[in-house]
Amino acid sequence: MTTSLSRKQYEKELQVLREEIEKNKGKTTEQLYEEREKRVRDAIELREPDRVPFSINVNTSKYTGIHNSAAYYDPIAWKTAMRQITLDFEPDMCNAGLPTSGLALEALDVKNRLWPGGPLPPDYEYQFVEGEYMKEDEYDLFLSDPTDFMIRYYLPRMYGALLPLSKLPSLSVMFQGFEGIVPIFTTPEFMQLARSLSKAGREMAEFRKTIGDAYEELALLGFPAFAHLGAGGVGGAPFDTVSSFLRGMKGSMIDMYRRPEKLLQACNMILERRIAGAFPADPKKRGNPKRTGMPLWRGDKSFMSDAQFMKFYWPGLKKALQATIDLGYVPIPFFEAEFGDRLECLLELPKGKVIAAVEHMDVVKAKEILGGHTCVLARSPLSSKVWSLAEVEKYTKNLIDTCGKGGGLLLNIRVPDKGTTEDIKVMLDSIKEYGRY
Q1: Smallest Cα–Cα separation from 408: which of 356, 337, 348?
Q2: What is the band of 229 on the pLDDT scale with cuts at 50, 70, 90?
């Protein structure tokens, strides 16, 4: 299903919905926004809010009839779906996803991502394709001249449309004039590269114009953003960048043994450049403090030993977290595997300045370790997608019983792929009431 709404029609609907909300709730959307934002802020700062705040994960296609592919090819439809989910279930923190132009991705011939509506069927989830995009003997090139490496090695491997860039001479010795190489740009392959870049640029510009600021539009209806991935801060663990985007899992595992110093130098350089390019949070903009997401995936105990974690992973992550805090953000590190006792490292950071988003197997342990110091975001297991609503409700209430005392708890409830919208509302209302302090 798609929507035939124009951008103007969507904005007109937004105003009508805002008026309806204010009439039904007896409050302005600004008041509703601040109520929810305060609830979340209290939890982050380790105070007891009026109740445990929550966000939700919902199967977009099932509950709205709009495919996942809309996030890449029909931005108005995607915004409509996110808005419907938010208004139907009224979470304290909303999610607008990470939409981007599928047509731009196609024009660039992206090699490390698969997305619904493009290489994947319309209701599949986005997939990342890991590869060895930096070879084991290229560390010195990357460390000595990262710009040259990115242009002539990395980008041609990551984007099929940019393959001709691999034929450029080294850019680091072109002191006597660029004009000597410009004839290469008249070749058919570089002419095609230019056309591909032009198309990708047009498609991305149009997509961004159409999508607008989806989070601000939801804020106008009274709903704060859960977080902005990639907006502000300095990103996550630099080891994850090397492991996933440069050397791949296999390569980074080998590098910890064969070339550990080169690996650490690469991690440090990546982090230093991120910090240098970061910008502080703007306190004049809506919602303070600003929350920014940090997906993490390689620092768990199934991938590296405790000694490797303390050598290769935690130092860079700690610096990234602290730098993000110093810029005025609340980082949300997503520990996407079982980290266990390694969560104790967060005690080295300032109190009440981080949200630790943990998988279900770590929730109780995380609250035991971090209680009174760091807010815990408890995420429902992936298996809960096939649970009954009663099972989800029981699981969530048990989390409130075991981890909710004293505040410092946020919930991320995965709504199962069953039950009517009304049934789900009843479940969420029950959880809201049960979570009152």
Answers
A1: 356
A2: low
**Closest by alpha carbon to 342, among 373, 364, 309?**
309
| ω into 53 cis (within 30 of 0) | no
Own/partner pairs for 171-179, CB < 8 Å, 24+ apart? 171/147, 172/145, 172/148
- Which tokens in the block code for residue 410? 């946020």
Q: How far apart are CA 103 and CA 43, in angstroms?
A: 40
| Residue entry with tokens 């409050």 | 27
- In Å, how far from its chain's centre is CA 255? 27
Residue 180: is its pLDDT beyond 90? Answer: no
Question: What's the whole-model pTM score?
Answer: 0.94
* Burial class, 263, CB count within 10 angstroms (exposed 0-12 / middle 13-18 / buried 19+): buried
Q: Which long-range contacts (CB under 8 A, 24 or more apart) does 425-432 make?
A: 425/88, 425/89, 427/389, 427/392, 427/393, 428/54, 428/56, 428/89, 428/90, 430/393, 431/54, 431/393, 431/396, 431/397, 431/400, 432/51, 432/54
Long-range contacts of 254-261 (CB under 8 A, 24+ apart): 254/136, 255/136, 256/304, 256/308, 256/312, 258/136, 259/136, 259/139, 260/311, 260/312
Beta strands in 90-187 (DSSP E): 113-114, 127-128
d(CA 144, CA 129): 27
Question: Rounded CA gap, 389 and 407, in Å?
Answer: 25
The CA-atom distances, in angstroms, between 396 and each of 35, 46, 344, 380, 382 are 22, 20, 24, 8, 14
What's the confidence (pLDDT) of residue 1?
Answer: 45
Q: In this structure, are residues 80 and 1 in contact, taking their beta carbons and an 8 Å threshold? A: no
Alpha-carbon torsion angle 151, 153, 159, 165, nearest 10: 60
Q: What is the DSSP letter of 283?
A: T
pLDDT digits (tens, 9 = 90+) for 201-213: 999 999 999 999 9
At what angle are helices 389-403 and 363-370 packed, to 10 degrees?
20
Q: Cα–Cα distances in Å, from 407 out to 225, 226, 361, 377?
A: 20, 18, 20, 11
